[in-house]
Amino acid sequence: MTNPAAPSHKISVSFEFFPPKSDKMEESLWAAVTRLAPLSPSFVSVTYGAGGSTRERTHHTVKRLLNETNLAPAAHLTCVDATKAEVDEVIRQYRDTGVKHFVALRGDSQAGVGGHYEPTPGGYRNGAELVEGLKRIDDFEISVSAYPEKHPESPDFATDIDLLKRKVDNGATRAITQFFFDNDVFERYVERVRRAGIYIPIVPGIVPIHDFVKVARFSAATGATIPAWLAERFEGLEEDPQTRSHVAAAVCAEQVLDLVQRGLSDFHFYTMNRADLVYSICHILGLRGAPAAGQDLPTAPVAA
Ligand code: FAD
């Protein structure tokens, strides 16, 4: 019998990490990178804290990925709470380090997701303007955000998609979505995007649910819907991490395999700096951990 889940097309994955705050977290990050690297991700991205709060740590992590692995890092960059001159300086520093790929974002103020957004005088006002600024400095590869359930501040889908169109017109070549759990919602969004004349890949952002309570809280802030069936799956498992982890793997595999059945081939995983669930899902997708010919495993030491 053939594997009904086996994709008939080539699967490509990318992984998102966040910059660690402590030596212990740095150790976890590198353990995750070492485990996931042999899956040959098309790129790995490193987030930028709210309001640019992790500027140095993000740069440090991207630099280590560049210098100590064969992975292709993408630096997340936000333009909130900074002037154009300040953001341009950060871009030039990345370029001088060898970074060729950015995930360009407006970002949120340190006040937090959902707080009122005020463009900084003399700053880039949104993701589209940041893409333009990046392209003025160099011919970088640029990924941007997309919101299948629309951005919470957006009055409607048309406004949101119009902004995405401006990002593409300014040079973005890939959009990565906010996480979502209802694949029909994603499919309807992609249809709207295509109707608006946007043809770049819209890569689904997939979040494995390590901690349902945390994901539910974050979903409320970002406007991602938690379907009732999903909440039911995790019901009563608050004190049972082992079952929770099995359920999380099943839920994520179901979502990703359904997207494969719908013809999707690129997936961006929000790893939370953990390899376990992501590695299992990638294995189910048919990716294998053997290093490609000529590809070395990362040789990163644990401490910086
Ligand atoms: P944009 O796409 O520029 O705009 C989003 C919405 O804001 C628009 O739809 C519009 O309604 C409104 N808007 C745009 N311009 C204006 C304006 N001038 N005045 C008022 N409203 C306006 N956040 C981080 O801090 N660091 C990260 O590393 C990070 N990585 C992310 C990666 C992905 C794939 C995604 C999907 C999100 C990420 N975020 C990150 C979250 C993101 O910063 C927030 O969702 C933020 O609120 C919007 O940023 P954006 O680039 O998506 O905004």
Automatic annotation (TrEMBL):
Pfam families: MTHFR. It comes from the Bacteria. GO terms for molecular function: FAD binding; methylenetetrahydrofolate reductase (NADH) activity. CDD domains: MTHFR (cd00537). Its EC number is 1.5.1.54. Pathway: Amino-acid biosynthesis; L-methionine biosynthesis via de novo pathway; One-carbon metabolism; tetrahydrofolate interconversion. Keywords: Amino-acid biosynthesis, FAD, Flavoprotein, Methionine biosynthesis, NAD, Oxidoreductase. Its cofactor is FAD. One of its GO terms (cellular component) is cytosol. It is an enzyme of class 1 (oxidoreductase). It catalyses: (6S)-5-methyl-5,6,7,8-tetrahydrofolate + NAD(+) = (6R)-5,10-methylene-5,6,7,8-tetrahydrofolate + NADH + H(+). Belongs to the methylenetetrahydrofolate reductase family. NCBIfam families: fadh2. This is Methylenetetrahydrofolate reductase. It comes from Aureimonas glaciei.
